[in-house]
Structure to design on (209 residues):
C-alpha cells in the first residue's frame, strides 16, 4: 500500500497527488492526516509520499505540529518522496535548516543535474517545467544527500539520499505534466522497479478528520 501523509490543515488538497500516483500504478493507496503519522507501521507500506502544506517549518510554532511526522520519517523503512513542504520535512528530519525567503510561485524551469531514478526521463542539463509555491527552502543539503536539480530561484530543487530511497522535490510535481512524470518515475523506478502495473482508478480510502 502507498501511504500519503496530508500535511494540510484541511482535507482534500492532496487529490492531485492521488490522481498523479494512480496514473502509474494500480496499487492501493491511503491518505491520512500528518497528525496520525506515528500510528502507522512503515514496514507495511510500499512507499510514503509527503504532501505540501500552507504551514512553514521556518516558523517554530508550525514546526512543533510536525514533530511526530519528522520522527516517523527518520524511522521509516519504505521509500519516501517529499513534495514541497514534504521536501522541507525530509530535509529537517535529516538535519537541514529550513529558512524563509520571498515568494516563489508559478511555473518554472528547473535544471536536471544528475540523471537518476526520478529524473530518468531527461538528460543532464535538460530543463523541465514544474509548478512552485513556497517561501521556505532547504538551506543546505542534509548529510548523506546529493543534489539532483536546481534553478535560478532555488538552489536545492531536488535531492536524494546516497544510500536510502529518500527523495525530496521543492516543486509541486502533481501540478504539471513534467512533474507528474517525476512522480511516475518514483513509482516505477524506486517503489516498483520490477513491476509493470497498469493505471487503474481506485476508490480512495483515508482519514476524514
Amino acid at each position: 500500500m502507498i501511504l500519503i501523509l496530508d500535511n494540510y490543515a484541511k482535507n482534500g488538497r492532496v487529490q492531485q497527488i492521488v490522481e498523479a500516483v494512480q496514473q502509474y500504478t494500480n496499487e492501493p493507496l491511503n491518505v491520512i492526516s500528518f497528525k496520525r503519522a506515528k500510528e502507522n507501521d512503515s514496514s507495511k507500506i510500499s512507499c510514503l509520499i509527503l504532501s505540501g502544506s500552507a504551514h512553514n517549518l521556518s516558523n517554530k510554532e508550525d514546526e512543533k505540529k510536525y514533530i511526530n511526522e519528522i520522527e516517523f520519517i527518520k524511522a521509516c523503512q519504505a521509500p519516501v518522496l517529499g513534495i514541497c513542504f514534504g521536501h522541507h520535512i525530509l530535509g529537517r528530519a535529516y538535519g537541514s535548516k529550513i529558512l524563509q525567503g520571498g515568494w516563489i510561485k508559478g511555473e518554472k524551469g528547473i535544471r536536471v543535474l544528475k540523471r537518476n531514478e526520478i529524473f530518468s526521463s531527461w538528460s543532464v542539463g535538460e530543463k523541465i517545467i514544474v509548478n512552485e509555491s513556497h517561501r521556505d527552502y532547504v538551506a543546505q543539503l542534509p548529510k548523506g544527500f546529493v543534489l539532483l536539480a536546481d534553478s535560478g530561484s532555488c538552489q536545492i530543487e531536488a535531492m536524494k539520499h546516497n544510500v536510502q530511497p529518500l527523495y525530496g522535490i521543492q516543486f509541486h510535481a502533481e501540478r504539471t505534466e513534467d512533474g507528474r512524470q517525476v512522480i511516475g518515475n518514483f513509482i516505477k523506478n524506486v517503489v516498483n522497479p520490477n513491476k509493470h502495473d497498469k493505471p487503474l482508478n481506485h476508490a480512495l480510502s483515508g482519514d476524514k478528520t
About this structure: The chain has five helices and ten strands. The longest strand covers residues 98-112.
